[in-house]
Amino acid sequence: MINKLVGLYFSPSGDTARLTKRVAEEIATRMDDACIENLSVSYIDLLRNPLMEDCTFDEETIVVIGIPAFTGRVPLPCVKMIQKMHGKNTMTVCLVDYGNSSYGDALYELYTFMEDQGFSVLSAGAFVSQHVIFKKIAACRPDVRDLQKVKEFCELTSRKLHRFCGTMIQELRAKPAPLDIKGSIPHKAPLRLPLHPTPNKHCTNCGACAQICPMGAINLRDVRKVDVRKCISCTACIRACPEGARDFHGPMCAASGLALEKLYSKRKDPEWFL
Ligand SMILES: Cc1cc2nc3c(=O)[nH]c(=O)nc-3n(C[C@H](O)[C@H](O)[C@H](O)COP(=O)(O)O)c2cc1C
Ligand code: SF4
Ligand code: SF4
After folding, report:
1. All CATH 3.40.50.360 domain ranges in the chain, comma separated
2. Residue of the nearest CA to atom 20 in ligand 1?
3. Are 19 and 66 contacting, i.e. CB atoms less than 8 angstroms apart?
């Protein structure tokens, strides 16, 4: 019998976490039929508690996994962690949060990686939030219309979940048909942005940025030193800084911002596949 829902998210600046929790809670409140009783909901923050060892999500669990699109791809740390996750035809919802430019191949990759690890992906959706680097893009997202769309997606997902979990006997549960998600698995490594946050004069050298960095790119002894070969520009260090001292700087950032704000000013609405 399905008895728990686990939400997993990698969310350097917090939007994907909010989306994942919203979806998980919306689904949990709709799971009240005889086969799904006393559903417990828990979360794994893959940035603060990265998976170091293999872990299995059994057939009694619903998984909701959320990642941000980074240059249209699944962020590198997530690829490595997904390889440690194992499903047993575990019913799964895949989410990508992106900044109104393009989610590219990220949703397709996430879906394929999860299926390859033994998860049965029931539904997948791409949702828009304010762009974490170029903040004028999608500045007020998610808005009321987005939140309504999240509810719609959760309603459709829950109906499908009811159909597939309508029996307590795992062997009798059908496997969802493949989803026709846009994208492919690129052979190239994801593009790296030439933007790397650095601290200003308000830095107290507390080390919080170095501790949170998922790539170990910040020098622990001198936080001004960033290994640009490792940094994926994820923004976790910016958000973790208690002094607000860390950010992207320089003419490259300003110039790209101006160009991209124009290019991606047209609203994109959430898209989903089920
Ligand atoms: C390194 C990096 C690459 C990004 N690439 C894209 C992209 O390709 N398309 C897009 O629409 N948004 C892109 N974004 C914006 C994020 O996907 C978006 O801001 C997302 O909400 C961030 O999630 P978080 O708040 O959970 O960190 C990128 C952000 C970063 C930091
Ligand atoms: S140094 Fe780069 S990879 Fe590390 S947290 Fe900051 S932006 Fe992310
Ligand atoms: S978190 Fe902020 S204040 Fe602390 S070391 Fe990093 S940049 Fe400096």
Report:
1. 4-182+268-273
2. 98
3. yes
According to DSSP H, which parts of the chain are helical?
A: 15-30, 76-82, 106-116, 144-164, 208-212, 236-240, 251-263
- Pick 4-182+268-273's CATH classification: 3.80.10.10, 3.40.50.360, 1.50.10.10, 3.40.50.2000: 3.40.50.360
Mean pLDDT of the chain: 93
Q: Is the CB of 72 under 6 A from ligand 1?
A: yes
pLDDT digits (tens, 9 = 90+) for 98-123: 999 999 999 999 999 999 999 999 99
- In tens, the pLDDT along 118-171 reads 999 999 999 999 999 999 999 999 999 999 999 999 999 999 998 877 665 566
pLDDT at 165: 76
Distance 169 CA to ligand 1 centre (A): 40
127 with 162: CB under 8 angstroms?
no
Expressed in angstroms and rounded, the spacing between residue 99 Cα and the centre of ligand 1 is 5
Q: Indicate if ligand 2 lies below 6 Å from the C-beta of 198.
A: no
Cβ(100) – ligand 1 distance below 6 Å: yes
Residue range(s) occupied by CATH 3.30.70.20 in the chain: 198-247
91-113 core/surface letters (b: 16 or more CB in 10 A; e: else) = bbbbbbbbbbbebbbbbbbbbbb
Task: Determine the CATH number of domain 198-247.
Answer: 3.30.70.20
Q: In 3D, which of 200, 194, 203, 191 has the Cα closest to residue 243?
A: 203
Dihedral angle, C-alpha 51, 55, 56, 57, nearest 10 °: -30
Cα 200 to the center of its chain, rounded Å? 29
Q: How far is the CA of 47 from the centre of ligand 3 (A)?
A: 18
